[in-house]
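Re: export button greyed out
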Amino acid sequence: MSHTINKIEQQFLEHMYTMNAYEQALGLMEWDARTKIPEKGTDDRAEAVGRLSTELFQLTTSDKTAYYVDTILAYKEDEVTPWIRKAAEELKKQYERSVRIPSEEYQEYSTLAAKSEAVWEQAKEADDFEMLRPYLEKLVEFSRRFAEYWGYDKHPYDALLEDYEPGMTTEMLDDVFNRLHKRLQPLVDEVAASSVKPDTSILFEPFPKQKQTAVSSNILRRMTYDFAAGRLDETAHPFALGLNPSDVRVTTNYDENDFRTALFGTIHEGGHALYEQNLPQEWKATVLSDGASMGIHESQSLFWENVVGRSKAFWEYHYDMLREEAGSAFDDVTLDEFYRAINTAGPSLIRIEADELTYTLHIMLRYEIEKQLINGDIEVKDLPRIWNEKMQEYLGITPPDDSKGVLQDVHWSFGAFGYFPSYALGYMYAAQFYDALRRDIPDFDTKLQEGNLEPIKQWMTNHVHQYGKSKTPVEIIKEATGESINPDYLLDYLETKYRKLYSL
Amino acid sequence: MSHTINKIEQQFLEHMYTMNAYEQALGLMEWDARTKIPEKGTDDRAEAVGRLSTELFQLTTSDKTAYYVDTILAYKEDEVTPWIRKAAEELKKQYERSVRIPSEEYQEYSTLAAKSEAVWEQAKEADDFEMLRPYLEKLVEFSRRFAEYWGYDKHPYDALLEDYEPGMTTEMLDDVFNRLHKRLQPLVDEVAASSVKPDTSILFEPFPKQKQTAVSSNILRRMTYDFAAGRLDETAHPFALGLNPSDVRVTTNYDENDFRTALFGTIHEGGHALYEQNLPQEWKATVLSDGASMGIHESQSLFWENVVGRSKAFWEYHYDMLREEAGSAFDDVTLDEFYRAINTAGPSLIRIEADELTYTLHIMLRYEIEKQLINGDIEVKDLPRIWNEKMQEYLGITPPDDSKGVLQDVHWSFGAFGYFPSYALGYMYAAQFYDALRRDIPDFDTKLQEGNLEPIKQWMTNHVHQYGKSKTPVEIIKEATGESINPDYLLDYLETKYRKLYSL
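Workaround output, generated via the alternate export path:
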């Protein structure tokens, strides 16, 4: 390697490290705003976050970024350190998307999104869609305009998808969701019609917060989550956040009358956290130190939450611990009863409370709505009506009000159109990984029964975590499982599990 | 006001708000690093902080800063909003100091200071001054060079003092400290020779952390600290930190075998916090939203800690609460015994554990050393010897080792030469405020006995807090008390209190 390229590579790294310092600061401000901030501090925090984000936006779209990226990519492939070349390609993508948005428009959009999120909280509370409508209308306007700035082949929605699931298109999603829906619907119907009705009353036994915290910590440790490089805190809307691989924080929410909220929330966020803790140290503070996509990230959380955390084998090992922390609440509940209760399935109103069987139906209806909204086939004012129609169509129920309907999710209120499909992709990826993983670890169930989760984490690190953002989601899923995304794996998994649970 | 100046004022404010967003981010990163960060996260945090600080340094020294400041100051005085003009003057000062330091030198210095602080921890632990010596030598070198960059009239040390106590000079400090020392030393000697020996064993009764936290929270509330605009956390080295007036955080440290650590630490930091919470909202996120100086800031913490928190009247109201939280530990201890125990005085090795009587002696010896160090009269290698000589001279004791001697304080390890005098100034200011305050609130003691601390806070807000950094320390002390700094007030306060306590 010549001296010049060596020097340029170093300067390029320095530039990324500086941008990453902003990201770490903003990440910490977000974590703090959701866990520790005093009540009166939120407005000034939002203001500071908006300003610092704009500074970072300007740095990302600076001539300096363009210069480093173009210089590195102008060298022959074998003259540049391979991963640094990958980083340059990734940053070039980010640069090119950002630079097409005028700086003032970005600032206007950021401020609007931040404000709108706060309005959403109030609108949901007041069950008043009209409060949020003017904000949503502007945000949809922005999204439609951004899609034009970014460009697309067939559907403007493709341009938005690219932010969350690089390489994914509306056409591909239509195909995958259609296949999924076709086999899923009859299964959902059969489960609903089954005479098997698990006793779910045990789910609502009082369970003190302090004891739930102990359960959450124990299970995170068992999952190989490293507490020396992270921490567990309480929040209203759980999330995991990686500032860097040595500082990855999990948050959860405690409901003393429904232990599932914290338990499965923690396992879910723990899955995200394992991804972030096991990103390669060498690439830290660069654009490659990130998940491959929202969908791949979600595959990790859902794999742990459902495939592991809702399996019987997992609870064969962990049920005693949970029982002990719960005091006497589960004394009369057998493992089998417990297992059936936590896997009860059926149509419900709220996405984040949905079971794994019906969850993707909630996503499909959101996807259908977003697509039409961005296309201009429907308008914001139509949302409550269309939401309720789709709920009837996909889940056979109609929300009693908008707060349990169209207002239930935060995503649209901060302008995240194109995000929802990632959740369903995550389900499908998770099931597809599961199939591949069992080929490599045939005694998967035995491992769970022994509480030995390390080999599972290691498989995910080998096939997913270690690549960070250096591979596309398509490459990761193909190399790990031997084929492209295929909804049949999820369907097979659900069929097997739920036919047995509901004696179908 | 013309349209042009109006527009310039707005742009200038925007510029300050942006700089302040960096400061808030850096402040939060510091708070987090001292309270919440996972163990493995510290190195990457230091790296990010270094980078973001350098970004802020570049913004502070940018042509943009110069342009706004110069444009505003070029207008006639009555054409500009008065407080914005003040802000421009303050920022001009900061700009001119910063711009004289070459950017690479600043970055080198910041990185060295951050590393050195970590080395200090190890050196203190290992009682090994030689570990820290090379770092200190470089930091002293930087400070001497910075003093030359900044310029001074008589003493290079004056240039450093300006950072902590604007307007203060070596000449003035020499005079004030000489007067203080002359009257203080005989009093200290008399107290040491007194046959009165308070029973201090009660200070070391076991006091559970959780109960101490309750005491700290109660007293903060009573002091009018607003928990909706702040929080209380645990840390190794207590501090208070104001991100903005709506988010001011207090930290404390719990010793279950010496409740004074948390109790007086909390009251002390609470005094700082009241200053930050009561800075004017209108000026928030500008350079005027800050304490007038380190000395004035310290006057607030010391006033609350000592004048209020170590007074008998304060405990006449609060002793029952403390007793209740302490379980049965204080059942046999009368209020008078308690009061005498928490005011026990006499020479000691460690500054932060010193009583209010001997505290300023610790400062004077540090001041003498710093002055000579920056002058070049002594060198870093001489520090352990000179430290021990001065301890003998000022306090009549010699440290058994360097970790209880020259290595005890963190300040020098991050290059803060010129900081220590602020602590002694704070003592003198506090006593001087006390004298003026009693003229306005003659029933001060009755207020304390009633637990009514609001009028005291209000007096401080009226005379100190509300001015932020818009007045110099000299202006504040003169307007509040009618004269310049005068050590006699502290001496009178100490004479009165300790003659009575020790029956002199």
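Chain A touches chain B at residues 17-18, 20-22, 24-26, 28-29, 32, 36-41, 43-45, 47-49, 51-52, 55, 226-231, 243-244, 246-247, 249, 284-285 (CB under 8 Å). The button fix ships in the next patch.
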